[in-house]
Amino acid sequence: MMMLTPCSSTKLQSVYLHARLRQHKPFLASNPYSKQWNIPSRKLNIKSKSIQQKPKQEEENYVFDRLFSNLNQATLTREPGSLSSAIFLVAGTTVGAGILAIPAVTEEAGFLASAVTCISCWIFMVVTGLLIAEVNVKTMCELGSGGVSLVSMAMRTLGNFGVQIACWSYILIHYALLVAYVARSSDILTNFLGLPLWESATLFSLLLGGICYFGSQRVIGAVNGGLVLGIIISFAALVGVASGNLHWDALLKANFEAAPSSIPIIALSFVYQNVVPVLCSNLEGDLSKVRTAIFLGTAIPLALFLVWDAVILGSISTVATNSDTIIDPLQQLRSANGVGLIVDIFSLLAIATSYIGFVLGLTDFLADLLKLPSAGNKPLPYILTLFPPLVLALLDPEIFFKALDLAGTYGVLVLFGVLPAAMSWADRYSDSTPSVKLQELVPGGKLTLSLVIGASGLVILTEAIQNFGRAQMM
């Protein structure tokens, strides 16, 4: 382990970064301008282990603008990801199929209770996303490379056991949700275009998958930004039409005892953490920008979820529900005049933005799992990402809510609840701490991490007991 002593900022940069680059020649080869790490900044604080061991009054912080530079391999010019594109990527990934099911699972609790639950889930998911970002950037520092996924993060912090949990949970969630997205989008496109179901599903998968594979960061950001803008416009139109029958007194209903049962689907609705490694890589490890992108990128969906829930619960007097199934709340609106088309457009755009984010996240994960070079897109991860969900969606067109229920009940709270807190705990408090210390994005120390792990475990255990009880009654 390299030990550093207090020195000037320039000297520390040169010693640390060049030593790292010598240890990781593949990264140096893929990024010949890796020396551009050595640019001062105001945000990202890095201090050596030896400095950290000194009394507080003698500690010396070193500040960097970015960990590396994103280069265009053809022109060798720096192409940093923009903060606005990062915000749209998080927002677009978050606004997905989960929003379509929120009113159905919150109807019994009422709007006030479900709003408190929704805000609580948002805070929880922001915290876990920041924990992932913190560990991801530390992992990039330790490995001397960009584009590391949860596999490398879990291996560095938790070892093989953490890798197994991360791999299986990540694959389960992503494939389940991609199957759900393809199934629902193909149904909508079939109604629009009159095409056979398999053609609609193939068209959707190849069109958006092709954008992810062939498009640059700017192209994908522009497409995603346009889709998010379309979501906002169609959402505003939908709210305007559906709110004509809004009963304000219905929004005062609050049954807090029924609220916990909605947590898995609401937590699923706020999933974006799969693109945090992509976010950290695009923003070149700038933790200040990453934190801003996560906060603002999830705040937009939070506002949409609250308004959406209020409009549906306030305008539909009775939503048919069953304790063993999830009912599509939009079927209620499709029967109303002038609403059906807007509902389909909003649903398709919401699914498309989330699909792009999950494809990017899963391909990055698979590339890291398969130990593929980070330079340039490789076709194998995209093939493994796009085609299995397409096949499964065609085998069972009614799989939409089954997939949502499976992913939301167990996978999300394990992968994006327990695991980030466990990795951060190991990163912060393990005896084998890394030689580089970054600023902590989430305050509260062990208390905060314990609350995250405890809350996730409680929800998982409660859902498991309830599901076991239903199985016994059948």
Overall description:
The chain is mostly helical and 474 residues long. It is built from 17 helices and three strands. The chain has a three-stranded antiparallel beta sheet with strand order 2-1-3. α7 packs antiparallel against α14 (340-369). The longest helix is centred in the middle third of the chain and has 44 residues, at 150-193. It is globular, with a radius of gyration of 23 Å. Pfam families: Trp_Tyr_perm (PF03222). Its main location: membrane.
Question: Which features would summarize this protein structure in a list?
Answer:
single chain; 474 residues; mainly alpha; 3 strands; globular
* CA-based shape: globular
Work out the helicity level: 55-70%
Largest sheet: 3 strands, antiparallel
Count of individual helical segments: 17
Radius of gyration: 23 Å
Biggest sheet, spatial arrangement of strands: 2-1-3
Q: How far apart are the first and last residues' alpha carbons, in Å?
A: 58 Å
Series of H and E elements: HHEHEHHHHHHHHHHHHHEH
Give the percentage of residues in beta strands. under 5%
Low-confidence stretches: 1-62, 319-323
Average pLDDT, to the nearest integer?
Answer: 75
Strand runs, count: 3
Structural class: mainly alpha
Brief synopsis:
InterPro entries: Amino_acid_transport_2 (IPR018227). By secondary structure, the protein is mainly α. The protein has helices spanning 9-23, 25-30, 49-52, 83-94, 98-106, 111-143, 150-193, 197-214, 217-242, 263-269, 276-282, 287-315, 330-334, 340-369, 379-395, 400-429, 445-473; strands at 44-48, 62-64, 436-438.
Give the helices and strands, then pairings:
Elements (H helix, E strand, L loop, with lengths): L8 H15 L1 H6 L13 E5 H4 L9 E3 L18 H12 L3 H9 L4 H33 L6 H44 L3 H18 L2 H26 L20 H7 L6 H7 L4 H29 L14 H5 L5 H30 L9 H17 L4 H30 L6 E3 L6 H29 L1
Antiparallel strand pairs: 1-2, 1-3
GO cellular component, one term: plasma membrane
Keywords: Cell inner membrane, Cell membrane, Membrane, Transmembrane, Transmembrane helix, Transport
Protein name: Tyrosine-specific transport protein
